[in-house]
Amino acid sequence: MIRITLIGSGNVAQHLIKAFSKSELVEIVQVFSRKKDKLTHLLDSEIIINDFSALKEADLYIIAVSDNAIAEVSQQLPFNNQLVVHTSGTASIETLDIKNRRGVFYPLQTFSKNKDIDFSIIPICLEAENTFDFRDLETVAKSISNAVFPINSEQRKALHVAAVFVNNFTNHLYQIGQEICEENQVPFEILKPLIQETAEKIKTLDPIDAQTGPAKRNDSTTIEAHLEYLTNENQQNIYKILTQSIQHNGKKL
Amino acid sequence: MIRITLIGSGNVAQHLIKAFSKSELVEIVQVFSRKKDKLTHLLDSEIIINDFSALKEADLYIIAVSDNAIAEVSQQLPFNNQLVVHTSGTASIETLDIKNRRGVFYPLQTFSKNKDIDFSIIPICLEAENTFDFRDLETVAKSISNAVFPINSEQRKALHVAAVFVNNFTNHLYQIGQEICEENQVPFEILKPLIQETAEKIKTLDPIDAQTGPAKRNDSTTIEAHLEYLTNENQQNIYKILTQSIQHNGKKL
């Protein structure tokens, strides 16, 4: 068994605990959480610790805390030369204290508290400073996911920015869609199959080939009618900038 | 059997032909297409016509042509007082010539040529000028879809604008995500599960509750790092305006 200790009690930590608990290859040795009761629904309370001096030996230490706490937590670890990784999409591998062997174990997904997730399809992006450590991380990652990728810190930055576009910003466009519906007594339900189909298409088509709509076909009559229809200046501005961006792509082709 | 004639040969017309061909309640009497060979893979060539004078009697005439051709086509129909509908998300019911009984039969979906679609889950938005016509349209719509809604022309405008946000603009954000990945030798595949999950979440959560990311949590360090990372001015502007829009929502709560 590969012995793993987790540090953290947030969304990512909790989803990892669930995933590792199902893995036959991995044993969770301990989980560090400032507040023990945040994890008692997932773990025996005996293995939950809130003091770094109580840390036992493990093969791998996973720091799943907020980005700005990674450096401090990694400094507080009371040992050297162990394999220590963080789970962040933005922090560099160098955020971790150099006294240990460093790595990154970044599951690229949007984790919600109240929604269970099939971890086997979640991409895990790995980075390590030497080949053996990378292979060990790969073994651990493959025990919970079928989509494991080597991604260095520079690529991970790109991936995180791209994820903001396809996840955070996309979700915000859903919200604007809902607002426009509700202001006009239209059930948002009507748009849900379209939202699913828009995402579904990307499985088989490149986004540029899936693009439809007034901007794509340079339908200026419809674009002007829509801009006139929108009364919210913020929505108007978003409509304009995204329409122009779609039209600009068309020209480059 | 309800006898239907379709006018048009584009994406919407072709998907409607496929859906009606499976319906036991509907018979396709004729389909008008300027170019007959565009439809011979779907229909017996005998029922494809390219001359309005060859139109036979039907219970319902569906005009599935581009928005700017609806008015002219409806004027050219060589009969009065029949039930005639268009399939547009933007054109008003009044775009149709008043010599016939008018209505709208708007399937809200993104239709791609090379992708078959399960019509039963596609919302169909209906409008008519009198109750009997509305009920007849409802019967036809329910024979191919389980999601039929009464939507007047004003509501339909809102719906179409909202659809541009959740479909056209969302797809464009996917494209930007892909560009950022490819510029940095990261496979876009890694982001696809996230795209699916983002859409999936909306089935059970309101978009505002599903929102995550640096803008939502006012993480100005990450936002600045992302803006510095993006070298394309257009992508920077989109990042800024959508980040501000997410932050603004937060304040209103």
Q: Major sheet of chain A: size, sense and barrel closure?
A: 8 strands, mixed
Strand order of the largest sheet of chain A: 3-2-1-4-5-6-7-8
Any idea of the CATH class of the largest domain in chain A? Alpha Beta
Oligomerization category of the chains in this entry: homodimer
**Total strands of chain A:** 8
Q: Largest interface here, residues on each chain?
A: A-B, 92 and 92 residues
Characterize the overall form of chain A.
Answer: elongated
Examine the secondary-structure arrangement and name the CATH architecture of the largest domain in chain A: 3-Layer(aba) Sandwich
> Mind telling me the C-alpha Rg of chain A?
22 Å
Mean of residue pLDDT values of chain A: 93
Q: Give the fraction of residues assigned to helices of chain A.
A: 40-55%
Helix-and-strand structural type of chain A = alpha/beta
First-last Cα distance of chain A: 53 Å
What string, H for helix and E for strand, traces the elements of chain A in order?
EHEEEHEEEHEHHHHH
What order do the helices and strands come in, and which of them pair?
The structure is a homodimer.
Chain A: E1 2-7, H1 11-22, E2 26-32, E3 48-49, E4 60-63, H2 70-76, E5 83-86, E6 101-107, E7 124-128, H3 131-142, E8 148-150, H4 153-183, H5 192-201, H6 207-210, H7 220-229, H8 233-252
Parallel strand pairs in A: 1-2, 1-4, 2-3, 4-5, 5-6, 7-8
Antiparallel strand pairs in A: 6-7
